Amino acid sequence: MFSRSGWAGMQRHGGAWSGEVVTGWAGLRASLSLVLGLGLCGVPYAGTDVGGLGGEVSPELYLRGLQLGAYLPFFRTRARAGARAGRGEPWQSGAEVLRYAREAHLERRRLLPYFMTLAHLARRTGAPYVRPLWWSAPEERALRDCEDAFLLGDCLLVAPVLAPGVDGRSVRLPRGRWYDTATERAYDGPVRVWADAPPGRIPVFARGGSVLPVLGEDGGVELEVWAPVRGRTGGGLVVPDAGDGWEEPEAERYGVRWSGARIVVEREDQDGGSQPRRPVRVRGLVEG
Asked: pTM to 2 decimals?
């Protein structure tokens, strides 16, 4: 269940839809602010309508809204009634938008195990999926003033395109090692960097040392591990989908460390460390 109305305790029953946000670039920026604000108010499952409601939606605005929505907890497009019927479907905006929309949907599907983990963490701890950049460092004023990017859990930083005619943008990275997921180039924060944002994607960065559960090519869950800084360790939590029913899934904790010239990933349990039972793919080993 989800609602566009709000009340104290609504998070116990479902999520929130941002309502009829005005169509346009200002509405797109407002959509992100709404989801961030709802998360901080204790409503972790929230999202918005791709493209807004009413008014004209350019192919560029539709695509950038869809690319943002693919990284929000609640993700949907919406067909419009009357004279604008069908404007909510990606094929209405041309072949190029359709191709890029497919790529955004495929990445959303690949990240489903991560969204499942974030859902369980939200239920158990109250931490929202979508978090402001200052989440782990509220004392840093520069991060508190950043309203055009967000953290998706602890592992990813998403920098959507919120203005027209843009093929790159400035991104402020918090303290620590971050990797551009498109190029695997490493950056050490706190720092502001320039990231390419061609029509087909928006900038996304992975935190060094993180363990990201994703769907592999065979449809099973695999561990995407981003290399920590040499001499440091990392880790992550995976809460798998238990399937139908009310059975509580078992959380899996993983540790990441360097051992000589290679990276070791271990599952942590009461008896110490053991080999992961899931496939592991290490990323972020590209120099430069």
From this structure: 0.93
